[in-house]
Amino acid sequence: MTALTAPSLRRHAAALWQLAKPKVVALIVFCAVIGMVLAVPGWPGPGRMLAATLGIALVAGAAAMINCLVERTIDARMRRTARRATASGELGMAETLVVALAALGLGMALLIALVNALTAWLTLATFAGYAIVYTLLLKPNTPQNIVIGGASGAMPPILGWAAMTGEVSAMAMVLFLIIYTWTPPHFWALALYRRDDYARAGLPMLPLTHGQPFTTLSILLYTVLLAAVTLLPLALQAAGAVYLLAILLLNARFVQLAARLHRHYADDSARRCFRWSIQFLTWLFAALLLDRVFFLPLSG
Ligand code: HEM
Ligand SMILES: CC(C)=CCC/C(C)=C/CC/C(C)=C/COP(=O)(O)OP(=O)(O)O
């Protein structure tokens, strides 16, 4: 057995932190926080907001750890994921499972005790949707895995909204729809330039099952659909001029990158499209926040 020294504890903590997919969870939590801010007039109470943010972050991190645990064998076959501690064998199953369940338990306890039951159950359903339905059932079995499974990733604004109000409004559902429609271009751009990884892992991702032209066309169509969906906050009169300006610029760039990718495929263009997807979502949600702060209505 390895002696428990400070450096080995630090190494374990760092390895566990990576399994929680901290950058993905950071954006998930950001979208949930914007959902919280938009849900109430003025600024939400800091106590409840902090508890909800921590609770959602812990449960999302737990879901990511369970995903790494379940996928340790396929992760080991993919260059992008082979260094994960579950794939390399650096962390055992029991240790990872205990930490993931502790994070899940703590997150759920915070949500139940300090937020509300609706948020707690919706967050648990989101956890199950990603860690069980997507990871175990959809991902290995259908190229539509991320389209259906994307519903889990799109939940954060709904969770944030429910945390502040105890209910889910039309605007919360619109924010869900934006992330839901954003997910296919986000993931398929990556799946294109990482197709060799997915082939080695034997996963039925769209570029492998339907080929490159079909995938780039699907990406393009989803970016156009996404541009239409991003107009919905304006239709609900829940956003103003700042948001309008942001989506015009963000969508124009996303559609341009997707169109270029479809016209002339190159791994570099796919990588650029993937990177832009992350900036797109970050700036879109930031724009919703700025719009709230400097609200300029579009009509009288
Ligand atoms: C079913 C839904 C989704 C799938 C299949 C998916 C897939 C992926 C994959 C495979 C990566 C890894 C890229 C790499 O290691 O180079 C990634 C990165 C990322 N994803 Fe997603 N994603 C999904 C939903 C989301 C959602 C909902 C968010 C945030 C709201 C998100 C935010 C990010 C971010 C920030 C990164 C970059 C992480 C980094 O640089 O380490 N993703 N996504
Ligand atoms: C409670 C709550 C808000 C949960 C959120 C669930 C969650 C973490 C969703 C993000 C989706 C995600 C990281 C997909 C990665 O795809 P993948 O797992 O196929 O990627 P991989 O190959 O890197 O493992």
Describe this structure in words.
By secondary structure, the protein is an all-alpha fold. Helix content is 79%, strand content 0%. It has 16 helices and no strands. Helix 3 (46-70) runs antiparallel to helix 9 (156-165). The longest helix has 27 residues, at 267-293. The radius of gyration is 20 Å and the shape is globular. The chain binds protoporphyrin IX containing FE and farnesyl diphosphate. Protoporphyrin IX containing FE (HEM) binds next to helix 2, helix 8, helix 10 and helix 16. It is found in: Cell membrane. It catalyses: heme b + (2E,6E)-farnesyl diphosphate + H2O = Fe(II)-heme o + diphosphate. This is Protoheme IX farnesyltransferase. Keywords: Cell membrane, Heme biosynthesis, Membrane, Transferase, Transmembrane, Transmembrane helix.
The hetero compounds bound to this protein are: protoporphyrin IX containing FE, farnesyl diphosphate
Low-confidence segments: none
Structural class: mainly alpha
Strand residues, percent: under 5%
Oligomer, anyone?
single chain
Membrane topology: Multi-pass membrane protein
Family: Belongs to the UbiA prenyltransferase family. Protoheme IX farnesyltransferase subfamily.
Enzyme class: transferase
Protein name: Protoheme IX farnesyltransferase
